[in-house]
Amino acid sequence: MGQALSSGSSQESELFNAVQVGDFETVEALLKREPNLVHHKTLYDRQSALHIAAANDQIEILAMLLEKSVNPDVVNRHKQTPLMLAAMHGKISCVKKLVEAGANILRFDSLHGRTCLHYAAYYGHSDCLQAILSAARSSPVAVSWGYARFVNIRDARGATPLHLAARQRRPGCVHILLDNGALVCASTGGYGCPGSTPLHLAARGGSLDCIRKLLAWGADRLQRDASGRIPYVVALKFKHRACAALLNPSSAEPLVWPAPLKFISELNEEAKSLLEQALMEANREREKNILKGTAYSLPSPSDSDSGLDDSISEASDTEVCCICFEQICTMEVQDCGHQMCAQCTLSLCCHNKPNPTNASLTPPVCPFCRSTIGRLVVAKIKTYDDADHDIGDVSSSKLRKLRKSRTFSEGSSSFKSLSAVGSFSKMSSRGSDRIAAENEWIDKP
């Protein structure tokens, strides 16, 4: 913590240093000898022992301090709480402990007017972000303030957590926020260029992963900031040409996650994961076509994806989708029991819906019996020995096998209109890049 540990007495200094290095016995002895030390703070930054414990992941000391009735929302010089520092440094165990102790997730600091949710998104700690969002769902915040309002909470410069995550190249956090109702087309106030959307900020940061996730959740490539620029122009200005190629309004529209459909919001996690993966793979194919022949082509598949060749013999003992004749059936319409693969299911849901502005709320119908699709579940597939298996029992390698002899458009003529997805390949996910976190200069436009 550097200069933050400077204190007015030798006992205070000894306490703060012991907390920082996790010397539980020394901390316990000092507080037993002088109980009031628990309320002392450092001279300059006004950090309490609880702040220091939270920032340094000293969970045992943090728990002991909370047991001594230390206020979990004690603030330092910048009105930052221990929960904010734990979220800033990615100390998930401390985040959970502080939330459990009743720490207020709606506190704002005086530095940038940010909450703990902003801190977790800005510094890219997706586990902390998820823990805070989970706490918000079950806390009075959801009732008194509204959960959707909390997810889209703005700092002093009008930035939501999604804006910060997109600008700082945090695709994991971007995905979590979008999945929890973050507004994909919200404009900033004074953060970055006024009027910037998360897509503008991702274009400025040059993060392909953030851009593809924002586009897949309906970000508008034609929305302008206060200077009249679309994200494509921003990407070109900062020389992120691969991003610009995907953001070019003349390039093909991406498939968009069909969020307005009621049965999509009711999917269980396993079914949702299958469909999301299918959507990202479809858009990955679109990206390859856009970037083909340029110096900005996407990286080749990793070694783990080298098994994407035609392996009909391995997949032949499982039921193949009767629409595309390529993929294993992984999704099932609950009411009628008809099955299809995740790619064809997604194509059915996204048909004629290139962006959310013209999305129809009318649910699609089953292509086999024409009944309305009210709910999707993960399919139980049948092998030729008539044994039922949950799709989770099938090896992931089998689920990825493609039959290259055909594309969706070469399937049954009755379902050619559903063939909007095209051929699929495994999308290699990237880890979130960690960018220098301690300085806020990167916030400056």
TrEMBL record:
Q: Give the record's pathway.
A: Protein modification; protein ubiquitination
Q: What is this protein called?
A: RING-type E3 ubiquitin transferase
Task: State which Enzyme Commission number(s) the record gives.
Answer: 2.3.2.27
Extract the coiled-coil ranges from the record.
Answer: 261-288
Domain RING-type, first and last residues per copy? 321-370
Instruction: Give positions of region: Disordered.
Output: 408-445
Does the record's keyword annotation contain Acyltransferase?
no
Q: Which UniProt keywords apply?
A: ANK repeat, Coiled coil, Metal-binding, Repeat, Transferase, Ubl conjugation pathway, Zinc, Zinc-finger
> Which enzyme class, named as a word?
transferase
Gene Ontology MF, one: ubiquitin protein ligase activity
What InterPro entries does its record include? Answer: Ankyrin_rpt (IPR002110), Ankyrin_rpt-contain_sf (IPR036770), RING_XB3-like (IPR056760), Znf_RING (IPR001841), Znf_RING/FYVE/PHD (IPR013083)
Q: Where are the transmembrane segments?
A: none
Biased composition range(s): Polar residues: 420-430
Q: What is the species of this protein?
A: Durio zibethinus
- Can you state which reaction this protein catalyses? S-ubiquitinyl-[E2 ubiquitin-conjugating enzyme]-L-cysteine + [acceptor protein]-L-lysine = [E2 ubiquitin-conjugating enzyme]-L-cysteine + N(6)-ubiquitinyl-[acceptor protein]-L-lysine
Repeat region (ANK), residues: 45-77, 78-110, 157-189, 194-226
Enumerate composition-biased segments (Basic and acidic residues): 431-445
Tell me which PROSITE patterns the record gives.
ANK_REP_REGION, ANK_REPEAT, ZF_RING_2
The biased composition feature labelled Low complexity covers 408-419
Gene designation: LOC111303630
